[in-house]
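for ur thesis appendix - Porin. copy paste whatever u need, i formatted it the way the template wanted (i think)
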Amino acid sequence: MRRSIGTLTFILFVSTSGLGELLGVTIRTASGRVFEKVTIQKETETEIEFVSADGVIIRVRKDKIKQITEDRPDTTPELTTDESVPTGAVKPQVPADALPEHSILLSQSVSNDGAFQGSDLFGERQARRNGTSYKDFYQAYFLTTNVELLGLPKGFKLGLTMMNPMVDRSNTDSDLRMQSTPGGPDQTSLVDKSLAAGQLLYDPNQVKTRKEQNGLYDYLFTRAMYDHETRLGTFTAGFLFINQNQPGYAMRGYWVIGWKAPFWEWLSPTISINNKMLNDFGGVFQGTHNYRLSLSHEFFKGETFRITPSLVVGYAEVNDNIDRKKGISDISPRLQFDYGKFFFAANMMYRATPALVDNGTYTPNIGVYADNNPNDGMTVDPAKAFGYKNELIVNYLSSLSTSPAVQRSLVEHYQQQHIVHMIFFYNIGYTIRI
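the 3d part is after this line
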């Protein structure tokens, strides 16, 4: 280790003397990984930060480094006197302005659900689609493809994330309404009357369940960020745009600013603010803010097997412009295991303030009565909202009293369930450079 650090000191000296542009660095870790032709950027008491040949910034703990050596510039070997002696393949000299070897960092993973700032992206919609109760673990499987561009000027980051459902993409008749035309009035009462009278009072070829727009949607997240490193920490600014292939859905856009603290590097504390700036759903979300605090640490950095626990806490300044609620939107711990190019991550989203999503915008009013108590943490169970069986039960409960208040209380007690506080999901995938 003393020899490697001494070599590093020599390289840093050469860099400051003007020869750093000619000499690269090769770093060998204790686990056998080799990083060739890298440039040392920063050194702390415990870590070394360097830039790989394709522009990726990497940090490795010093106690994991086995050897650091300088690279000599590539030169064309001189011809031997006896030209019959084979000299091997001659490696062409790489121009200084040549394109990087890798242009894209590609990551793909399969997950059973996804979340964003306290919102469940797939599972709860799947429950409404299939007429099942809300729960903490879903089988709303989808493929995530993440693309990060490499070789950009230092500080600039540009990435795309696509989320494509692998199940429940088609539209169904999960609302169980009986309709003569798609989107027409509910005629389930005709089924109930037929059952009570013992005879068919409607044409089953006309009055039947119809398909609706309830397939799971594709998402596209686009990020354009810039990091500015200073002695006061790293300041970040950029944009995050979210597109969804839902009919009538407008793009959601965020102005993102952040700060990574220069202290407690072991936890990488970062504070960011997602500021809603684009109009959608009639402007209901415009002007909202979500403050994010993230902590993470990578164990066994630079080795083949790595473990990274992390925690993100979000606070909504205003959830929307109608309800205007505030509170902790989500507490999201994550535990990721990496082995070479492959990874597995276990995630949880805890909604500490369920009142933020206790409204008609997030959980639609699909019950007999509209939710007039947006602070009770209750919502309508999709499994008890539609269909002739549920309508028979609702009619029976309503017949038990002539008081509208009692009828409403009985029906809501039957139809409602608690908003799910914790949602669990996982990711399994790989990351490669192209």
